[in-house]
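Lab manual, section 2.4: Encoding a predicted structure.

Procedure: take the sequence of the chain (329 residues), apply the prediction step described in section 2.3, and record the output as C-alpha cells. A sample record is shown.
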Amino acid sequence: MTTSTKIPDQEDRKSGRSLDEPAPRRKRPKGWWLPYALLVPAILFELLIHIIPMVTGIWVSFLQLTQAFISNWGQAPFAGLGNYQIALDFNGVVGAALLRSFAITCAFTILVVGMAWVMGMSAAVALQRKFRGRSLFRTFFLVPYALPVFASVIAWKFMLQKDSGAVNHLLADNLGFMDDKPFWLIGDNAFISLVVVAAWRLWPFAFLMLMAGLQSIPHDVYEASAVDGAKPFRQWRSITLPMMRPVNLVLVLVMFLWTFNDFNVPYILFGSSQPPAGDIISFHIYNASFLTWNFGLGAAMSVLLMLFLLLVSGIYLMVLNGRNKRAGN
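Recorded output:
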C-alpha cells in the first residue's frame, strides 16, 4: 500500500489553515448591489412599456372584444383563433383588405429603404473627403432627421396641397411640367407622396450611420488603389461596399423594421381617413381597432404583424450568420 502526502500550497502555509478545513467564503465587495439596483428602473419601465402591453395585446387577440364589451374586458367572450381566421381569410372582405394593405406596405418599405440608403450613401461618400464647408453640409443634411416628425410632415402636407401647395406651384406654374395641378394627398398619387415624405424623413439616419462607418476605413487604402489606377466608382465598389458590409447589414434591418411599422408619417399626412393607395398596414390595424371598435380583430392583426417581422428578422440574421461563417472558413 502506498501513502500519498499532499504538500500544502503557499497560500495554506501563509494563512496557517488546515488542509481539511473548508476555505472561507470571500466577502462581497462593498456596494456590490449597486449595479443590480440601477437595473431595476430599466426593468420596470421595460415591463410597463413593452412586455405588459404586448402580453395584453396577445390576450385581447383571443377575445371577441368589441364596443359592447369595451367597458368590461373580462366579460368579452373567448373567440379562440376566430379573429386570426377572419384576418387570414383572404377570400373574405377583412382578409382581402389586410392582404392588399400588406402588399402596399411591402412596396412602400422597399422603395423608402432603397431611396434612403441610396441618398444616405451618396451623401456620405460625397462628404468623405475633406473640403471647405464640409461641416456645414453635414449639419444641413441632418436637418430632416432633427426636426420633430409632426412639424416636418405637416409642412409637407401644406406643400402638397392642390391649389396652394408649393409643389404644384413649382411644377405647374414655374417649371411648366404639367398643365393641370394634380391631387397629391388623394388617389393614386397619395402613395407617391407617402414614399417621398417617408424617404425624406429617413435618409438622414442612413447618412449618419454610413458616414460614421466610412470613418473607420483607412484612407491609405484609397490612395493605394488610386496609384493602381482605380477610378472612384471602382473604389466604391471594391473597397467601400465590402468594408461597409457590417454597417449596411444592420442599417438595412433597422430601417426595414422602422418603415414597416411606421404610423406617424401616414397618420399626420392623411389624417384618420387615409386613401386606399396609402393604406399602410399600421394605419389599417389602427382603423380596424379604433374606427370599427373591433379590438380583438385589431389585436390579432397586430400579433400577425409582429410574427411576420420576427420571422423576417430571424431569417435575415440566419442568412447573414451563415455567410459570415462561410467567409471565415
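Check your result against the sample. The chain has a mean pLDDT of 84.
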